[in-house]
Amino acid sequence: VSRFLAACRGGAVDRPPVWIMRQAGRYLPEYRVARARAGSFLALCRTPPLAAEVTLQPVRRFGFDAAIVFSDILLPLAPLGVEFAFPDEGGPRLDRPLAQPEDWDRLRPPEHGGGTAFVAETIARAVRQLPPETALIGFCGAPWTLASYLVEGGTSRDHVAARAALAAHPREFHRLLDVLADAMAVYLLQQVAAGAHAVQVFDSWALALSADTYAEFVVPALERLLRALDGTGVPRIVYASGAHLLPLLAGLPCEAVSVDWRVPLDWAGRALPGKTVQGNLDPAVLLASPDTVRVATRAMLAAAPTRGYIANLGHGILPGTPLEAVSTFVETIRGAA
Ligand code: CP3
């Protein structure tokens, strides 16, 4: 087994495995070339030979222990009837936000999935080209994070429109989260069938919700999504921002939890008994000098659990990150035998 999969299951490893959330992206010169060749970010995602190539780029350059399929959390919403664009600045934009329960009723999940075959093909191609010890991670957005995009129409700072919609229409919001959970379950199963060795569910905007709201609305939807993978034997990682949610995440049917940089790692280890912990260097630290990166990475490793730990950042890598900072991060972890 690969070092990454062993660590997902809490097994012994010679050193912590390492990969980086959003490791394929604009901080890599070879990514910018591929994106220009494809014409747009969406065309790049939807062209499997190019998407597979971009998936492999960071593994080739840095020798990461895992690759993550190149796509975006919004792409599997297109088959449900959601239209969006990725402008050069400011993140994804929906053509029409789905602000009201009437709008949510119009979401039409295809009965047996469909509309995302390009992701399966990207995975199959990437797995064929990866070194055998390197795992391929499939992923999707979590129901709450996707619901926020639908209601807000884009990336929101405080998620007020989504939180207000949840408060005003609790029954309908529950239903919206269930529809998204079921659609993402089909989508993840498709990725596993195509060869993904592990899956990660991104609840990037979890931090916007209270623990009570998360317990009542989000946890049941996440359970529904994760349970769908029960029979596959594939490790499930949940990324969620927000230390106040750790006790709730501890009860989820998943093998690993990825935590943000606000959470002390030793604390996360204790709050998540029996689970692997992933994270959690502040991505902004990689904008500092190599010496600073080395010191901060060592501090992260010192606080990490000895078993069941995957080194990563606490959120996605920032576009302006110097390549040297990434090498320093990875080499410091490799030195930690
Ligand atoms: O290596 C990888 O991880 C790449 C695959 C990947 C992308 N998006 C590509 C991408 C993954 C796993 C994602 C997940 C994603 N997308 C999340 C969850 C993770 C997180 O960071 O919280 C979220 C919230 C999104 C939504 C999204 N997509 C935003 C907010 C943005 C704009 C921010 C930015 O970096 O520009 C995107 C666009 C996006 N997704 C890019 C990439 C490489 C940049 C597109 C470009 O090339 O211009």
Query: What is the first-to-last residue Cα distance?
Result: 18 Å
Order of helices and strands: HHHHEEEHHEHHHEHEHEHEHEH
What is the alpha-carbon Rg in Å? 19 Å
Please state the structural category: alpha/beta
How many strand elements?
A: 9
Q: What can you tell me about this protein's structure?
A:
- This protein has helices spanning 3-8, 29-38, 41-45, 48-62, 101-105, 117-129, 143-152, 160-168, 170-194, 211-227, 246-249, 265-271, 290-303, 323-334; strands at 66-68, 84-85, 93-94, 135-141, 198-203, 236-240, 256-258, 276-281, 309-313.
- It is of the alpha/beta class and 337 residues long.
- Strands 1-4-5-6-7-8-9 form a seven-stranded parallel beta sheet. Strands 2-3 form a two-stranded antiparallel sheet.
- Strand 7 (256-258), helix 12 and strand 8 form a beta-alpha-beta unit.
- Helix 2 runs antiparallel to helix 4 (48-62), helix 4 (48-62) runs parallel beside helix 6 and helix 7 crosses helix 9.
- It binds coproporphyrinogen III.
- Coproporphyrinogen III (CP3) binds at residues 21-26, 35, 41, 68, 70-73, 86, 91-92, 139, 155, 202, 204, 315-316, 319.
